[in-house]
């Protein structure tokens, strides 16, 4: 529910979204732009995972949205909206991927951030390779 999303984002210092399709296809846009979440220093969006079922669901959902709304759900615009809401840093996917590749990214992310202790910038650099 939107209340659960709000509770999670306003009460954490870091937030990880690991899910199918676009993050903003799961969250109400009006709700996000009205939020004030300065305590959340890092949002990691491992979204843009596409399967046949998720593609069908998002296609059906997008038919009821304006072109402007769909454009706001793109990675760069999502990062800008989160930043305007107060998030300190956003790590986001740029292109669609499959479940296996996304799982590998999550493993690399956790290994570099938590086990090795690299900074977020160093970790993003590793993920780009």
UniProtKB/TrEMBL annotation:
It comes from the Eukaryota. One of its GO terms (biological process) is cilium movement involved in cell motility. InterPro entries: CFAP46 (IPR039586). This is CFA46 protein. It comes from Dicaeum eximium. The gene is Cfap46.
């Amino acid at each position: 529910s939107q209340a659960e999303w709000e509770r999670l984002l306003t009460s954490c210092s870091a937030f990880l979204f690991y899910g199918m399709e676009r993050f903003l296809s799961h969250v109400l846009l009006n709700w996000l732009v009205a939020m004030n979440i300065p305590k959340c220093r890092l949002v990691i969006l491992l979204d843009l995972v596409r399967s046949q079922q998720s593609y069908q669901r998002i296609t059906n959902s997008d038919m009821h949205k304006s072109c402007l709304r769909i454009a706001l759900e793109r990675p760069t615009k999502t990062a800008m909206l989160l930043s305007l809401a107060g998030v300190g840093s956003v790590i986001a996917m740029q292109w669609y991927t499959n479940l296996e590749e996304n799982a590998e990214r999550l493993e690399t992310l956790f290994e570099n951030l938590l086990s090795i202790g690299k900074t977020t910038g160093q970790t993003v650099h590793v993920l780009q390779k």
